[in-house]
């Protein structure tokens, strides 16, 4: 009887992929803080994860990283040049995403250590 790693790892590999993509989108927002007309974007993590899990059940995770799939952020204080990036909002979202990424990575690491112990017979 073999180990099915996709089932043993749970949701965490998909979560890490989505968190990494969200990190890329948020970093792009921060980098374009002063770009006139730039529209801040973000991923709906829960909706993306639900979709990734549904796609994963159909034969593997297919993560569509097309920027068109990202949602546009509505600014609290619109600027005159059309840029919707609010640095404080983006930094807070980036920090929260980083913490969530680390949490998923820790859970995944614990699962791998548990599997290694089970394989070693401990």
Q: What is the chain-wise order of helices and strands?
A: HHEHEH
Largest beta sheet: strand ordering: 1-2
Mean pLDDT: 83
- Helix residue percentage: 55-70%
Gyration radius, rounded: 18 Å
**Structural class of the helices, strands and pairings?**
mainly alpha
Give an overview of the whole structure.
This protein has 122 residues and is mostly helical. It has one domain (5-117). Helix content is 58%, strand content 3%. The protein has helices spanning 5-8, 12-31, 45-57, 87-120, and strands at 41-42, 71-72. A two-stranded antiparallel ribbon has the order 1-2. The longest helix is centred in the last third of the chain and has 34 residues, at 87-120. It is elongated, with a radius of gyration of 18 Å.
Give the helix/strand layout.
Elements: H1 5-8, H2 12-31, E1 41-42, H3 45-57, E2 71-72, H4 87-120
Antiparallel strand pairs: 1-2
Helix pairs in contact: 2-3, 2-4
Sum up the structure in keywords.
122 residues, mainly alpha, two-stranded antiparallel sheet
């Amino acid at each position: 009887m073999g180990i099915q790693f996709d089932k043993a790892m749970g949701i965490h590999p998909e979560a890490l992929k989505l968190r990494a993509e969200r990190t890329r989108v948020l970093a792009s927002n921060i980098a374009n803080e002063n770009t006139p007309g730039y529209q801040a974007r973000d991923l709906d993590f829960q909706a993306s994860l639900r979709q990734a899990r549904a796609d994963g059940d159909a034969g593997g995770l297919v993560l569509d990283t097309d920027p068109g799939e990202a949602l546009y952020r509505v600014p609290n204080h619109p600027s005159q040049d059309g840029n919707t990036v609010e640095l404080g909002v983006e930094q807070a979202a980036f920090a929260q995403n980083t913490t969530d990424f680390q949490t998923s990575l820790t859970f995944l690491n614990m699962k791998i250590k548990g599997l290694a112990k089970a394989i070693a017979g401990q």
